[in-house]
Amino acid sequence: MKNTGLFVFLFSLCLCTTSCVDDEADFTGGGNIDVEMPVDPDPDATIDEKVFDVINLDYPGLENVKTAFEAGDKYTALVKLLDYYRTRVDVINRNVSLFNPTITDADQKTADYALDYKFKVKDFVDKDGTPYSFKGKDGQLINWELEVKDLTDQEFRYQRHRHQWMLPQAKAYAVSKDERYVESWKTVYQDWLKTYPYEDGTKFPPEGGSENDVDYQWKGLQVAERVISQIDIMAYFIQSRNFTPEWLSTFLVAFAKHVECMRLNYYQSGNILLTQAQAVTTAGILMPEFKNAETWANEGSTKMTEQVGVQFNDDGVQIELDPSYHISAISDAYETYLIAEDNNKKNLFSASYLAHLEKPAKFTMDITYPNFSIEDFNDTRSSTWSKSVLQKNFRKYVTMFPNNTDFQYMANGKGTAPGYLMASYPTSGYYVLRSGWKETDAMMILKNNNDPRQSWHCQSDNGTFGLYYNGHNFFPDAGVYAYSGKDRDTYAETQRHNTITVQSKNLLNNARKGTLKLLKDNGTIQTIVTENEGVYENANGPIPLTHRRSVFHDIPNKLFIIVDEAIGESGYNYNTNLSFHLCPGAEIDTYDQNNKYITGRTKFADGGNIVLRTFFDKEEYIKDNKVDPKQTNTSPNIGVPGKDDNKDKYLRKGYMATCKPKVNGNLIRFISVIRMGEQNISEDITAEFITNDVLTSLPTQTTVRVKVDGNNYSYTYDLNNN
What we know:
The chain is an alpha+beta fold. The protein has 17 helices and 20 strands. The strands form four sheets. Strands 7-8-9-10-17-14-13-12 form an eight-stranded antiparallel beta sheet, with no helix packed on it. Strands 1-2-3-4-5 form a five-stranded antiparallel beta sheet, with no helix packed on it. β13 (597-601) and β14 form a beta hairpin. It starts with 5 loop residues before the first helix and ends with a strand.
């Protein structure tokens, strides 16, 4: 029997309470201070002797391990190595709390379900709301290749190999000391290692990474997330009597394989590469006993530094143009820096490393609605970005950039609000117009992405927008329902967004070429003009159509005026569609044939409301004008709405206004007016174009007249006079 000793516990606690940590990850040392340690070798023990090839026996603290190994007593060497890991105090892992550990209800449920082989795989659940069972049949322990009828999303296949239930089991053990969690983890992980062995040195084609093949268990995020979580899992489980010397050898050899596999199979770019670099760096810092640890730390941090420089466009937006991956990229880069700082290895990163993240942090701030929610653009999955999560990120930004008072305002809602109301990210194609920063204010995000990379996470919806006013998101984006298959294609359709289509078909992925033509603010009216030289799907060949969208935000009169102008080639004579999708609970009128407009509205009892009205151009310029009502869902996360969800909660009502040019090749134009208010908003609204010329090209100047409650307002953009 060996007692690790009260001295070690107190020393660990003392060391860790003086470490530089934040309030999100209060690291403390110690743990079980009365652990049984084997003294004599177990004659039946099977150890993986490769552990002595991957561990640096000359690392400080491993002297007893080296002595036993050189004497030929490998089992005792492992006993000493386990003793070392149970008592080491010179490595600080801010993600682990061992002193008075806690666990959330959600993690506890995840841990308990896993005892019965019901493994948490992202947010996928069975019809009873529990994780799917991976229990095997006919002598098979676990059915790792489980397929569920009608569940085709590739994420269900991929994410099971990220082992998202194992860390909750480790936390459950730390709280309860219930050995069932350790036994379950060992059994499941051992079975996974046997089912998916990795041969050292294997490179998976194609170079630069792809998960869409038979090797996805050992590619990309699967490996990276396992490495990051396994470091924490080991820290929680290490004091268990079931964490034996032989299991330590198995675990450490597998861990080294994971890191080396990543190094051979780095992705060429994107968020996956950044996470791979994060995992390699973290392994090098927090597992310094490995022979290659220094190489891991240096190589990983070098890649992270490079990626922080190239992962974001020059305007600060992450290159995949997806808000979710954008926020995560900032967090990953910063968290790794903090781990290095905690362990006196801040020198791994350049002095300018954090400075590269200030523009990206500002973009996060600018696209956050006043009620601390974000739009479901692209693959965002907004339900995962709650107010508490977003504010936690803003608190990080305060620490990173203490002189930026804007972040301080977003972190706690106190102090002075940012001093600007418009924000422009023209390289990436995001634009923001606000009336203020309070929850009662209005905010529009116009999305006209410029995407030469044809990013997989970006949807072809140039010109779409989100609009928040006084507590409500009135035009929620379609979002993403799945990461593969028909459902993904459906939610990504261009016509499911608030923008132009041709023949109701999609804008091609290689035609996301959004540009900014004008940005202007005179104090009361904000003007933005964007353009996209689009090309749309068509069975007889792609159809070019350039779409210009101008937005005038009249702050005093609580109006948004949206002017859409579209021009094709000289023979263009196709149905041109303008779609709008209002929030659940909205109403849509029947098309008014006499006055040539369609109206939508909300009548919420709380917060704000809107009236939306769309007008066609004059009849001498267009033909075949019609309006079709539309009902579509908005999806804030993968698989939502689910089978048992209240469908009305996600059901959007909207319309598609359609017309053709009267003469082939002529300009197609629409005016849409959004009026904001509280209750019983007057619908005395008309709008018309002032220009009476027949246009065969996009003009340099357009003026519209809007009449509201008998008052005339004129709005003009002039590209020659900014």
